[in-house]
């Protein structure tokens, strides 16, 4: 299982063009470390579009779905730092979902990812889920150029918070397919073969949108803990 927890927060969004440089600096050096300091946040990663849109995709892997409704996380959302409050004004077209990890196959995370946003057609969720989890995802890590494949399903509706009030209402997430690999060509080909729009629709998917992304930054809770650990005595 490549993902570190049983749940994940999925975000995709654009940022005002004139704020991209500052956004990436803030996101790397303040925002993601702050989030990974919250108990049960395990790994955060930021991805930037090579094709498709929006520009950014962010994935936070967490221990449990309840982590995303914890008092510690809510406290951060309702008390943004001055820099966070400033950056929230530059967000555009945010989608944000609290998801359960329905399927996760492979080991590790490749630096290139195919993100497919979808929802089941009426009455097709069980059949679509079975096809994806039992037939498609287990095969992906075995193919050259690929590393892992995941199905995430929205399971909770995020509450309105101070951060969201600043940037505007977030759009919801339904289902997300995320396939990672080490070869951009192999990752892109996934959307032309087993997980093509035609195949997904044939098995009960609707509302399809996709893009290929490059990982730009990642951080784990272990790295935060190591940074915050007291230094031992120096050896002379």
Describe the structure.
By secondary structure, the protein is an alpha+beta fold. The chain has a single domain (7-226), classed as Alpha-Beta Plaits (2-Layer Sandwich). It is built from eight helices and eight strands; from the N terminus they run βαββααββαβαβααβα. It has helices at residues 20-36, 71-78, 82-88, 125-136, 162-167, 184-190, 197-202, 221-228; strands at residues 7-15, 41-51, 56-62, 91-106, 112-120, 146-156, 175-181, 205-220. Strands 1-3-2-8-5-7-6-4 form an eight-stranded antiparallel barrel, surrounded by four helices. It is globular.
Task: Describe the structure in brief.
This protein is of the alpha+beta class.
In terms of topology, how is this protein built?
Elements (H helix, E strand, L loop, with lengths): L6 E9 L4 H17 L4 E11 L4 E7 L8 H8 L3 H7 L2 E16 L5 E9 L4 H12 L9 E11 L5 H6 L7 E7 L2 H7 L6 H6 L2 E16 H8 L8
Antiparallel strand pairs: 1-3, 1-4, 2-3, 2-8, 4-6, 5-7, 5-8, 6-7
């Amino acid at each position: 299982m490549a993902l570190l927890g049983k749940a994940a927060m999925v975000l995709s969004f654009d940022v005002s063009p004139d704020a991209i440089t500052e956004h990436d600096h803030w996101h790397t050096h303040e925002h993601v470390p702050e989030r990974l300091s919250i108990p049960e946040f395990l790994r955060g990663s930021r991805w930037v579009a090579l094709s498709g849109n929006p520009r950014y995709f962010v994935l936070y892997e967490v221990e449990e779905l309840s982590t995303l409704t914890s008092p510690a996380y809510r406290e951060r959302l309702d008390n943004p730092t001055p820099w966070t409050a400033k950056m929230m004004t530059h967000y555009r077209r945010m989608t944000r979902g609290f998801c359960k990890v329905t399927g996760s196959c492979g080991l590790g995370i490749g630096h290139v990812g195919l993100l497919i946003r979808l929802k089941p057609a009426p009455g097709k969720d069980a059949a679509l889920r079975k096809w994806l989890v039992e037939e498609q995802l287990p095969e992906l890590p075995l193919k050259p150029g690929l590393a892992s494949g995941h199905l995430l399903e929205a399971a909770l509706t995020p509450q309105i918070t101070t951060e969201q009030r600043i940037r505007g209402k977030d759009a919801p997430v339904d289902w997300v397919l995320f396939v990672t690999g080490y070869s951009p060509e192999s990752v892109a080909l996934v959307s032309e073969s087993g997980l093509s729009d035609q195949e997904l629709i044939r098995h009960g998917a609707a509302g399809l949108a996709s893009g290929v992304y490059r990982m730009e930054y990642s951080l784990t809770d272990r790295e935060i803990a190591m940074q915050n650990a007291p230094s031992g005595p120096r050896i002379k």
